[in-house]
Amino acid sequence: MADDQEAQLIARLQRGDEAAFVALVRDHQGPVYRLLLRLLGNRAEAEDVAQEVFVAVFKAMENFRGDSRLSTWIYRIAANHAKNRIKYLARRGRNHRSDFNERVDPNNIATDTTARIDRPDRLVEGYQAQGLLEQALQKLDEDQRTLVVLRDLEHLSYEDVQRITGLPIGTVKSRLHRARLSLFQHYRSLQGES
After folding, report:
1. Domain total for the chain?
2. What's the pTM value of the predicted model, to 2 decimals?
3. What is the pLDDT of residues 60-104, one digit of tens each?
4. Does 99 lie in the same domain as 17?
């Protein structure tokens, strides 16, 4: 979205324009849901939290200062809601992650991690690799998973990741490096099991 279009949308949102809010949800619901699904590892939880995120965005819109892009601000709200939900579920002794086969539909969220392959054998291999990658991602701790999802799967800039997480850029880079190494180790371990 061009800067002037975003500024107009923000102004309409801050005036309480319902059509602008519908447009905002339409434009951001897919990325927010994918982010939440990857962070929470559970489709039902991701759907519930996504609704909460957009309610929070609507309520807080008048406080949006424009220090970052609107999408970055929404991602920060989503990441904070995911973190809160993970803590809530942990306090109640409930595992927020469900079985991989229940939660991942390759036609929905996996377009970033699946190569476009024509041959059936390679297609199956791609889905298997994608499944292992998603499982390895869920084995990361919450902070590592957040960094990998934001930077590597959502393709946000380091500056956007810094704004969302509140970490200095140097810390983002060093923690992301460790998270990638951990992800690779989990992936290799899962490959050995299958």
Report:
1. 2
2. 0.76
3. 998 898 888 999 999 999 999 999 999 998 888 765 555 444 444
4. yes
